[in-house]
Amino acid sequence: MITSLSPFVGAAVVRRLPVRAGIGLKPEHFREILAAAPDVGFFEIHAENYMVDGGPFHHYLSRIRERYPLSIHGVGLSIGGESPLNDDHLDRLATLLDRYQPESFSEHLAWAGHGEVFLNDLLPVPYHAATLARVCSHIDRVQDRLRRRMLLENPATYVEFSASTMAETEFIAEIVRRTGCGLLLDVNNVYVSCVNHGRNPYDYIRALPLDPVAEIHLAGFAREVDAAGDPLLIDSHGAPVAQAVWDLYRYALEALGPVPTLIERDNDIPALSVLLDEAHQAERMLHGIDRHSREARA
Q1: Residue 8 counted as domain residue
Q2: Does residue 14 sit in helix, strand or coil?
Q3: Residue 20, SS3 per DSSP
Q4: Total number of domains constituting the chain
Q5: Mean pLDDT to the nearest integer, 170-193
Q6: Secondary structure in 3-state letters for 242-294
Q7: What is the pLDDT of residues 120-131, one digit of tens each?
Q8: What is the DSSP letter of 16?
């Protein structure tokens, strides 16, 4: 039985992203966005880039927020870490969310620090009972402090733990059942992880609980080769969305129906028009699924 939602159910206005495609908001594009007002569904920011009181980032975000829906994506809470959540970080996050009232907030199923050491990476966790209890406790704490439902993102992984006793999809489903959190389905992460571990990404999608999915991420990856000579995909966010990921996205939409979708690009940032083209491609697929759903109901 879900009990952790009770402190914040009804305490905040329920907001949802529009069922459209959005892009990550980058400083390189601030002025062009304000000047051109591009047709895009929403913008997403990384919370940690805005955890200060003022400065140019807030100046531009405040103006852009007046025109567009907003998603805030955290990368530093270390939800999967063994250490307790950092209260100062959580307080700064709460202040940021109160300031901008985003339609969506999400974090990763990963850890990024231990004790006083912070690693600039999103690292995997073993999938067993002890980790499950810890992750659920951390999510409960986040949702209670922020007074909102958070979305949990499935990870991109390059190694697995022999100590795991659950499949990743089973682990995620149990987190949702216990905490009532939603899911951010990163389709690129699904593809990257499944290729790296020799699994079928379509089977992964089928095994996930799909009703809690409230946002999708699409991104590009880099190709490497591991020490055994096997393919190794890296979730680089530095390339266009690969065709294999577009195909998996279409499959996910057919199972889910239309879901707000973000194009992520955090490295080798291209011109705004390039990101908008990818967002428009995702939106055409969204509209196609939506039209197909309406016709099926008719």
Answers
A1: no
A2: coil
A3: coil
A4: 1
A5: 98
A6: CHHHHHHHHHHHHHHCCCCEEECCCCCCCCHHHHHHHHHHHHHHHHHHHHHHH
A7: 567 789 999 999
A8: -
